[in-house]
Write a structure and sequence with these properties.
Elements lengths: L13 H13 L16 H22 L4 H31 L7 H7 L6 H18 L9 H176 L5 H18 L1 E8 L5 E9 L2 E9 L3 E6 L7 H6 L8 E4 L3 H13 L5
Antiparallel strand pairs: 1-2, 2-3, 3-4, 4-5
GO cellular component, one term: monopolin complex
GO molecular function: microtubule site clamp
Keywords: Coiled coil
């Protein structure tokens, strides 16, 4: 005979439904006592109850199959083992309910304890009726029963007794659950009252804190005003002190100016006296000015004469250049003159190169206190060209003090040759103190 799969049916009384709805409506949304939509039961109770249902079905099958004693003996033995296991499980669960303090239970414990299975008492009644009907059907064959069938009958009776014990214990657990639910309601009501008290205290605290905050703002504004006044007072005092300091400085400056005015008055008196003396000396100065004019005229006349003499000398020199000198005595005289000129002027003519009748070049060395300057002079008839011959290693010390105009090429007229020589010699003979 094929066994049909058993459907789990949740049997809940109207009182339990009303109590659950009331607890859900009373408990707040954030309360830890709210239940989830899914039914949650303890795993041990589920397993034990499913096993009990299976045992009941096997008992009904055994009662219906009394004609097959050999096969039913094993099933009865397993049924006895299962019922004993169920009774042990239920004993442990009922003992734990009796030992645990009910005030310590929370919502999760209640969810674990709440039965999510069909009432076994109603099923047992239906199955007992079915068993009686099956017995009535098998009455003709009762006279031929074996002693094994009697044993099966006794075992089925024992199983029924165990089932009745289970139902009694389940009723006891339902009573405990009702007590737990009442305590849950009390806890929720206490929680609601406490939350209301907390809200009230929070409102009072909020009101007090707002008042304190307003007071703090007033004090802060007063302190800010006082601080502004103090800063303004400090600024005013600082301005007054600066003004007093400026006034004191102005007084001192005025005193100094008065002293300066006195000195200037005295100096002006002295100047007036000097002016009077100068006025008296004006005729003498006019006489000296007239004498200066005479001297200027004499200077002009002498300069004119000097120019004429220079021109005459130039003409004579040109004529001398044209005349060839063949006498040795004349050369000796010229050499002696050159030596004398070199000794007097410290100018050494190192080399003479005659390019043409007009153009000549002279390599000269001018010695002095600050060093010796090597340069080249090229004469073109009317002008001289100065070209410095500077060596970086040889003239290192001279370059430190050499002016810029002697480092570059210079062209000057023949009339200004004496001025050039004087400047170069003056530089070389100049002392550091000068």
């Amino acid at each position: 005979m094929a066994r049909k799969p058993r459907k789990k049916i949740q049997v809940v009384t109207e009182e339990n439904q009303s109590s659950e709805e009331q607890t859900r409506s009373e408990s707040p949304s954030n309360s830890p006592l709210t239940r989830t939509n899914k039914p949650v039961t303890r795993l041990s109770t589920r397993l034990s109850l499913s096993r009990a249902d299976n045992n009941i079905e096997t008992i009904d099958e055994n009662s219906a199959r009394k004609n097959f004693p050999k096969k039913n003996t094993r099933k009865n033995q397993t049924a006895n083992g299962k019922t004993s296991h169920i009774s042990k499980k239920l004993k442990t669960t009922t003992n734990t309910f009796e030992e645990v303090d009910e005030s310590q239970l929370n919502q999760t414990d209640i969810d674990y304890i709440v039965p999510r299975f069909p009432s076994i008492q109603s099923k047992s009644k239906l199955r007992s009726k079915n068993r009686k009907a099956s017995q009535d059907d098998v009455l003709p064959n009762q006279n031929n029963n074996d002693p094994n069938q009697e044993n099966n009958q006794s075992q089925s009776d024992e199983n029924l007794l165990n089932i009745t014990n289970v139902t009694e214990r389940l009723e006891a657990t339902n009573k405990i659950l009702e007590q737990i639910k009442t305590k849950q309601k009390l806890m929720e009501s206490n929680y609601n009252t406490e939350s209301a008290k907390r809200e009230q205290t929070f409102k009072e605290f909020k009101q007090i804190s707002e008042e304190n905050f307003q007071n703090y703002e007033r004090r802060f504004s007063q302190l800010q005003n006082n601080q502004k006044r103090e800063e303004e007072h400090k600024l005013k005092t600082k301005q007054i002190s600066t003004l007093e300091h400026d006034l004191h400085n102005e007084k001192e400056a005025r005193h100094v100016l008065e002293q300066d005015l006195r000195k200037e008055k005295e100096e002006s008196k002295k100047l007036i006296n000097q002016l009077q003396q100068l006025k008296q000396e004006i005729p003498q100065i006019e006489n000296s000015i007239n004498s200066i004019g005479d001297l200027k005229q004499t200077i002009k006349r002498l300069e004119f004469e000097l120019r004429q003499e220079n021109e005459n000398n130039k003409k004579l020199k040109r004529e001398l250049d044209k005349i060839p000198t063949q006498l040795d005595t004349k050369q000796l005289e010229i050499l002696s003159q050159l030596n004398l000129y070199q000794d007097l002027s410290n100018l050494l003519i190192q080399n003479v190169k005659i390019v043409s009748q007009v153009e000549k070049s002279f390599t000269c060395i001018l010695n002095g206190r600050n060093g010796s300057l090597v340069f080249k002079l090229t004469f073109n008839g009317d002008e001289y060209l100065y070209e410095p011959c500077i060596n970086q290693e040889r003239d290192a010390e001279l370059l430190k003090i050499l002016p810029d105009y002697l480092r570059e090429e210079i062209s000057f007229k023949k009339d200004n040759s004496d001025l050039f020589f004087w400047r170069a010699l003056n530089f070389l003979q100049k002392r550091e103190s000068d």
